[in-house]
Amino acid sequence: MFTKDRIAKVLAGSAAAALLTCGASASHADEIIKLGLSIPLSGAAANWGKGSEWLCNAAAKEVADAGGVKVGGKVYNYKCVAYDNKYNAAEGTKVAQTLLNRDGIRFIGGSLGTAPVKALQSLSEREGALHFTTAWGSSIKGPKFPLTFTIMNTVNEISFPLTRYVKEANPSIKTVSLLNPNDATGQETEALARKAWTAAGVQVISSDWYDRGTTEFQPIASKMAAAKADVIDLASTPPADSGVVFKELKVLGWKGVQAVQVGTGAEGIIATGGAAVDGTYMGAAMVFDSALTTPKQKKLNDAAKAAIGESLNSVQISFYDSVMALKAAMEASQSIDPKLVAAALPTVKFESFYGVASGFGGKDVYGTPQQILIPVIVTQIKNGKLTEVRRIVSEEMKQRK
Fold first, then answer.
1. Domains defined along the chain, listed by start
2. CB 107, CB 338: distance < 8 Å
3. Which residue in 322, 301, 327 sits closest to 370, CA to CA?
4. Do 370 and 360 touch, CB atoms closer than 8 A?
5. Strand residue runs (E) in 193-295
6. Which of 101, 210, 265, 345 makes a 20 to 30 Å CA pair with 216?
7. Calpha distance 94→91 (Å, rounded)
8. pTM for the whole thing?
9. What is the rounded CA–CA span in Å between residue 377 and residue 354?
10. In whole angstroms, what is the distance from residue 376 CA to residue 366 CA?
């Protein structure tokens, strides 16, 4: 468990070893620290992975341009090394073995997808590698996993404020139908989505599943439309699939409130859903033309759109924040030893992509402070354009001095 006493003891008791570790690693001419990425680079979730790799590289360049990471009298820089986990456990296991055993990487700059992340975590914790992840599952956090840190808002952080807002904005809604991919990510999301909608006073009347890679959604849409729920929440369904489902629902004549809790951006869902996705609420997207957009955010987003063809989203942004968090913790601990850096992470603050001070917390929820503290941004597609409708700042981060 990450207590102040434990952190102080680890940092103080291992100071000499940390300096030796830094000196040994810094003896390499290039002074490069590799950041492993386990991400989907193919399939329906490929846009998340490609943007994540792009942002990791952008953050690494930003660190280098600012003078690098200063540890033990040496300067280090980061290199992002990405492999395609195809968003499944089998490929996630292969990627984990490649990153940790073949490449010898000891810092995972980001991982995506609960099933492949669990496969990676089973090795990373055992091998002593620090692991940043965007996976939503609560089962990957806690005292049993001291080297794993979640770098984006998860269902626990998003579901309750999102469903409350949707209910406030649509007070007449009483029922909801859910749809999720039938995998670890979908199963954990579904359980929390049920609790959140129930807490908001909305009854879950049906919950359906589909296999990733599905291209024919008409049967699923027919079943959901027949339930006649006031709301359809596609929860952890990726953007491309979500657009297809909502388009099929509109063809069937269903009219109601639409939500995608893990909805990460407008381009992907509009590309497949067209006008059918108008009005959809999302919990993991970001708007880049609002009054709250900083020049730095706009510059990065414009560059990303030119490179990957769409705006950045919260999943991808996490890979930027992991680099900045890692730099802050390495410099605070004056070490590149993964365990010492992990011990320092809950004590540091750093500027996140969102333009506000961020850190790690969530001990009351998860048992250890392994959850990044960043704003929850509720967005809605209006007339084909993504609009920010509510921004909720972390109470725990606001209380930190």
1. 4-153+293-374 (3.40.50.2300), 156-283 (3.40.50.2300)
2. yes
3. 322
4. yes
5. 203-210, 231-233, 257-260, 281-282
6. 265
7. 5
8. 0.80
9. 10
10. 18
